Amino acid sequence: CNEGWAGDSCDQCAPGRYGVDCTSSCDWLTSCHARGACSELGTCRCFDGFSGDDCSECEAHRYGPTCSISCDPIGDCSDGHGKCSQLGECLCFEGWVGPACETCAPGFSGAECQVQCNAAQDCNSEGICAGTGECSCFEDASSADCTTCAKGRYGPSCEIECAAGDTCGKHGRCETDGSCVCESGFFDRRFVLALRCVVAGAPPDEPCVIRLRRAEM
Q1: β-pair partners for 205
Q2: By Cβ atoms counted within 10 A, which residue in 14, 32, 51, 95 is the most buried?
Q3: H/E/C letters for each residue in 96-126?
Q4: Which DSSP letter does residue 2 get?
Q5: Mean pLDDT computed over 18-28
């Protein structure tokens, strides 16, 4: 038989030869990378999961060394919140985390995780980021970025409580550091007592009092 032909009557293609004239060569191990079979025309007919002329590629949404892992960005990565890696895992876009990119990443909020807010930086660590990206301040803090102490709170971390009519009594006011400053003519009770002076008639819990005279020794 001539090259490419076989059989008693030379009317069949020789092994590895295909086509009407047996002129096409195909070997499923080398030509199709063992991922497909040779068709009657000498082309590769790829097995499930493989594609390409030589079956060397994975079908759409198939990944991994054997194209056995299925991953669809829409169905598996939460409606396109990420893309599929070559290993068939979701690589999340900015703002999203989770195996299926289903959760807002730290510092992101909103229906589509599109609002960026960092509690430590944007809220001065004195609040949390709300769903709208605005700061929701803790009880002791106030203002849009939680840098201002709430009413009646003082100190670097707003940890000191001072109320003019309560902490400082009727005759005192709260200083910026949370301490009491007495009105003119009144003195801090602790200072008066330290001088062994008699306190003018005032409730025992009144911090600002009138000093009358030095107590008798």
Answers
A1: none
A2: 32
A3: EECCCCCEECCCEECCCCCEECCHHHHCCCC
A4: -
A5: 86
d(CA 50, CA 39) in angstroms, rounded, equals 15
Instruction: Report residue 55 as tokens.
Output: 């079956």
Q: Tell me the pLDDT tens digit for each residue of 175-206.
A: 888 887 877 777 665 554 444 444 455 555 56
pLDDT digits (tens, 9 = 90+) for 29-48: 999 999 999 988 889 999 99
Q: Compute CA 48 distance to the chain's CA centroid, rounded to the nearest angstrom.
A: 38
Can you tell me which residue has the tokens 């990944």?
63
Structure-token pair, residue 67: 């194209």
**Cβ-based neighbour number of residue 92 at 10 Å:** 21
Rounded CA-CA distance 107/145 in Å is 15
DSSP-H helix ranges across 63-188: 73-76, 119-122
CB 89 within 8 A of CB 71: yes
